[in-house]
Amino acid sequence: MFHKSNCLIAQSGGPTVAINASLAGIIEEALNSPQIDTIYGALNGILGVLDEKLINLSNTFSKDKEALDLLKNTPSMYLGSCRYKLPEAGDADSDYLEIFKIFQKYNIKYFFYIGGNDSMDTVSKLSKYAKKINFDISIIGIPKTIDNDLRHIDHTPGYGSAAKYISTSILEIAHDAYIYDIQSVIIVEIMGRNAGWLTAASALARNEYNTAPHLIYLPELPFSTEQFITDVQKELSTRKQVIVAVSEGIKDSTGEYISAKSGQVDQFGHVMLSGTGKYLENLVKEKIACKVRSIELNVLQRCATHISSLTDINESCMLGKTSVPLALEGCSGRMVLLRRESNSPYTVSYDSVSIDEIANKEKYVPVDWISESKNDITEEFMEYMRPLIQGEPKQSYKNGLPSYLSVNHLIHDSNQA
After folding, report:
1. Domain carrying residue 38
2. Using CA atoms, how far apart are residues 313 and 301, in angstroms rounded to an integer?
3. Residues marked as binding?
4. What is the mean pLDDT of each run of 10 residues along the chain (417 residues)?
5. Is this structure's pTM higher than 0.70?
6. Residues comprising the binding site for Mg(2+)?
7. Of the listed 147, 149, 231, 312, which one is catalytic?
8. Please, what's the b/e burial string for 111-125 (b: 16 or more CB within 10 A of its CB; e: otherwise)?
9. Do 141 and 185 belong to one domain?
10. Is 378 a member of any domain?
11. Is residue 379 a part of any domain in this protein?
12. Torsions phi, psi of 237, nearest 5?
């Protein structure tokens, strides 16, 4: 006879297309477990635990299979998010005392935290504190980040869908550019301050007639503005329209962000990052004097469910499901992951790793996946990325727009009834 306990789930960091699929996977598996009674969700990450902002997910999803299916294809974070770094634990640390007080009050024996690098840091700290005070709880990390910069996992949930959106956008930008019989440069700034995985995905836009993006710059290698101008001029000598994909975090040989070169400072004297794309746009105007514009994809690349990858959604859901039996076995301080077994046919396996192998570490694009010219990627990188954008989830629509699960519980609007 099992003594039932409860589980708690929270989400943290930046949103993605696929993070709710991981949430749905946990909920689905937990609902079927005889060891779990009530499934709680904390609103706004670990801050929701500290503030005791918990909702009963069992009530919401146990009787509504359609709601769970809808959750898998709802963008962003159903439980809300936060960006809060727990301090180092101390004997009298109030954060830890409050968190474990909530765990005890709600009989939480299983805590699942879905997020990126900082979230895995939280998993690490909480699991160590639980062990220190001999508190019986399993704390498991479920990965997500469009940045694809978590170590030991082949690729992170959210990356494939973001890559699909970025490459689709580049292809559509190319179609827009090709209609004009004039010389032009379009610079597309893509997220990635330290790792260029997203920017590299722009190369997936290339097909039998489209060669854009014609130049790709990642933050893994130093960026030279002089070489950039030379590269653009070389491309303009053979084509009229040049499309450039560039990571927001490219730096010069001294490690300074290119976007910090505007020379402007705020009221505190801090250098203002004017935007990498905008800086390069102005540079091309000055040095080449052709038509040029910059486009910043910004948050659009994070939650574009209308162009998501079915592979991404399915894998994200499976990682959520995988975390539940791991917790029920009594494991703690681990992150679930997937490993690629084959490219053709594309197959993966699921496993877990100690959270200390993940937290506060970053995975960068291998330098040998960047071309010798430093302005493109290799075919090996293309082979890595292609399987991740395959398939399209079935999307329902209402009044011409995608139907998503309501997040009314997150909306703070004094005008709402």
Report:
1. 5-158+307-361+392-410
2. 16
3. 14, 117, 145-147, 191-193, 248
4. 81 92 95 93 94 93 84 92 83 82 94 91 92 93 92 94 96 94 94 91 96 96 94 94 94 86 52 75 90 91 92 96 94 94 94 88 92 94 96 91 90 58
5. yes
6. 117
7. 147
8. bbbbbbbbbbbbbbb
9. no
10. no
11. no
12. -75, -15
